[in-house]
Amino acid sequence: MKKILTPTNYELIPLNDKTNVRFFTSIDPGSYVAPHWHDAVEIVYLLEGELKVIVGNDSRNLKAGQCAMVTPNQIHSTLCTSPNRAIVFQIPEAFMEKFIPHARNLCFSLQDPAASPVLQSKVELFKETLIKMQFLTDLQPDGAVLRFNSLLFETLFQLYHNFCTEAPKKDTVQHSRNLERLEPVLQYIASNYNRPISLEEISGVAILQPKYFCRFFKKCMGVTFLEYQNEIRLSKIYKDVTSTSDRISDILERHGFTNYKLFRRMFSERFHATPTEIRKHVSS
């Protein structure tokens, strides 16, 4: 496996050397992935369970049998409060550019259920292709790579003809510049989330004045710097709550969440349960 890394890539994607994409069946016992982005179209086809997908200010709850698509460099997060199984498919922009004209100026989206029977038939055809690709990936019959790659190009054709629109070039360029400036900031937060980070410290990473940095961060991420740092802490805490038997107080201390009242409120708002209730639900 290799990784794609570009100036606007906050999440590193491990790519298959023989297909140049990432395709796998995810089995998630429960997780919260804080806001992030990557230089790839991301498709999630939920096979079992439920999954909340938040893209910008929009949120939707995927049910089994439904599909969601996130366009490259679009900030998004996911929340799985109970076990689910899904196909996850990520196609880098750099790969699409070889075959789709002006791929970096395109927005990819898919609504499931769709607004009309005709559009829904296109969605169903796309999901059928994903199931065929899953069979090849999971069972690896003879010639699997050859057939997978043929289906990969079928999905690219479907994406280009059925699920994309052109974005204004000016907006695309500015968005890329914003993400390029944000990338070292989010990397810095990810490395130091469990300790206090001052506004002066983090604005220095972005090479911006503190007041301008606050406006810039809120505009790009939809939350304040402090709120984002707490979201990172919550994602780490949720993982420990669901995968360890450590005391909640020890988990909070490990991840730098010192305000217990704020933690309880944020945890309840995000997961609609207490840590103890989440533990019982995951283990049942």
Concise account of the structure shown:
Helices cover 48% and strands 23% of the residues. It is of the alpha+beta class.
What does the model show?
It contains 10 helices and 12 strands. The chain is of the alpha+beta class and 284 residues long. It folds into 2 domains: 2-166, Sandwich (Jelly Rolls); 170-283, Arc Repressor Mutant, subunit A. It has a 4-stranded antiparallel β-sheet. Strands 4-9-6-7 form a 4-stranded antiparallel β-sheet. It has a two-stranded antiparallel sheet with strand order 1-2. The radius of gyration is 20 Å and the shape is globular. Residues 1-10 have low confidence and may be disordered.
Index terms:
single chain; 284 residues; alpha+beta; Jelly Rolls; 4-stranded antiparallel β-sheet; 23% strand; disordered N terminus
Please specify the SSE layout and strand pairing.
Blueprint: E1 2-4, E2 13-15, E3 22-28, E4 31-36, E5 40-48, E6 50-55, E7 58-63, E8 67-70, E9 76-80, E10 84-92, H1 93-96, E11 106-108, H2 117-139, H3 144-162, E12 164-166, H4 169-192, H5 199-206, H6 210-221, H7 225-243, H8 248-254, H9 260-271, H10 275-283
Antiparallel strand pairs: 1-2, 3-10, 4-9, 5-8, 5-10, 6-7, 6-9, 11-12
Order of helices and strands: EEEEEEEEEEHEHHEHHHHHHH
C-alpha geometry: globular
Helix content: 40-55%
What would you report as the Rg, rounded to the nearest angstrom? Answer: 20 Å
Kindly, what is the distance between the CA atoms of the first and last residues, rounded to a whole number of angstroms?
35 Å
CATH fold title of the largest domain: Jelly Rolls
InterPro entries: Cupin_2 (IPR013096), Homeodomain-like_sf (IPR009057), HTH_AraC (IPR018060), RmlC-like_jellyroll (IPR014710), RmlC_Cupin_sf (IPR011051)
Organism: Blautia caecimuris
Protein name: AraC-like DNA-binding protein/quercetin dioxygenase-like cupin family protein
Keywords: DNA-binding, Transcription, Transcription regulation
